[in-house]
Design a protein that fits this description.
The protein is an alpha/beta fold and 383 residues long. The chain is built from 13 helices and 15 strands. Bound molecules: zinc ion. Zinc ion binds next to loops. The site of zinc ion has 6 residues, from loops.
């Protein structure tokens, strides 16, 4: 458990697998299967586990003995049972035996961090003002936040998950995060070297979509759109995160929406999705609105542009839902309604008629909880 690996981000099954199956592969697969079953069910017996996983009683007993020795599984006591014979001993993941650190670097003004339990609940919360720090100064603030959280943890730490803005490769190197002045920054290695803990770094929207899947009830084919200072998205297809050829899947903020112009964007183009939807732009437009009807129209137009941008994505990928993350006072209401209406009118009703567009219920902690979900997935194989 000591080697940082991006196992949580293994990209599904390849179409042409070439490696031979080795015994250790099935061992780690069976181990993850048992942990996953315990994580979701809890309070089950060895016999229940054998039934649920299809593994033999002997295999289950061996795996459980090993997991108890690692302190990852605990015996809860015996089942109250009217049946004759020896009552079954109930097992669970050791939910209080480990904690996870989650870091959210996505906000333009502050770095956020938390100590989380294995169920994704936040036990300790820390906020560090960014004060426009960039480059190494921003790295130093991240390292200090991690050290602060390590000191605040009250149980052994399973690992550190980090949601970073920008484009992040599968090894946790931030290829580009202009707002933090980072390029080719090996953040995962730097944090692992500094803390001696397993670390997983991913793009903030990719972390957020994992949180929605693990803790927010997202379906397996979901796009989570983060709307804040910029606009990004995380994609889950068949329950597997999608990263794309250059780790930039979901980078929809600088896609031009429509052919009818729009406002100039910082990237040099005109009418990018961000110019319609980014929160500072929306707030500026709303501040100039004379009345409630005008405000509503501004929000509806932003939602319509989002729908126009997403319709081909929904059609191409056959998504079941689009989840929005950002300030609910702006996004929930006319904007979400207009986005859904636009998606409905622009896609095929027989396939996409029951598509849902909704706000996340995870609020502003979504990236931090997604970072914890990455650690759970990477270290234990559970989600
Ligand atoms: Zn742009």
């Amino acid at each position: 458990m000591s080697t940082p690996t991006p196992a949580g981000y293994a990209t599904g099954r390849t179409l042409r697998p070439s490696a031979k199956s080795l015994p250790e592969h099935s061992r780690s697969h069976n181990r993850a299967l048992v942990l996953q079953t315990l994580y979701r069910a809890g309070g089950v017996s060895r016999a229940d586990l054998a039934r649920a996983t299809g593994l033999t009683r002997v295999t289950i007993s061996d795996l459980i003995a090993q997991l108890i020795a690692e302190d990852l599984v605990v015996e809860l006591g015996q089942r109250e049972d009217a049946r004759p014979g020896k009552p079954a001993t109930l097992l669970d993941i050791n939910r209080t035996g480990f904690q996870i650190l989650g870091l959210d670097l996505s906000d333009h003004a502050e770095l956020r961090g938390g100590v989380l339990d294995l169920d994704g609940a936040i036990l300790e919360h820390r906020v560090v003002p960014l004060q426009n720090a960039v480059g190494q100064a921003a790295v130093d603030k991240v390292l200090a936040l991690a050290a602060d959280l390590i000191a605040a943890a009250t149980a052994p730490i399973l690992g550190i998950g980090v949601g970073s803005p920008g484009v992040v490769d599968l090894g946790g190197t931030v290829l580009s995060a202009p707002n933090l002045g980072w390029a080719d920054l090996p953040l995962q290695r730097l944090l692992a070297d500094a803390t001696g803990l397993p670390v997983l770094v991913a793009n903030d929207a990719n972390a957020a979509v994992l949180a929605e899947h693990s803790f927010g009830g997202a379906l397996s084919d979901t796009m989570l759109v983060t709307i804040g200072h910029g606009v990004g998205a995380g994609l889950l297809l068949g329950g597997t995160p999608l990263f794309g050829s250059r780790f930039a899947a979901g980078e929809i903020g600088h896609v031009v929406v429509g052919t009818d112009g729009g406002e100039p964007c910082a990237c040099g183009k005109v009418g990018c999705l961000e110019t319609w939807l980014a929160i500072p732009r929306l707030e500026a437009k709303l501040a100039g609105a004379p009345d409630a009807a005008a405000r509503r129209e501004i929000l509806r137009e932003a939602g319509e542009r989002l729908g126009i941008a997403l319709a081909p994505v929904v059609g191409a990928l056959d998504l079941a839902e689009v989840v929005l993350s950002g300030p609910a006072d702006l996004l929930d209401g006319p904007l979400t309604e207009a986005a859904l209406e636009t998606l409905r009118t622009r896609t095929m009703a027989e396939f996409h008629g029951d598509l849902a567009v909704r706000m996340t219920a995870l609020g502003q902690d979504i990236v931090m909880r997604g970072a914890a979900a990455m650690v759970l997935s990477g270290q234990l194989g559970v989600s």
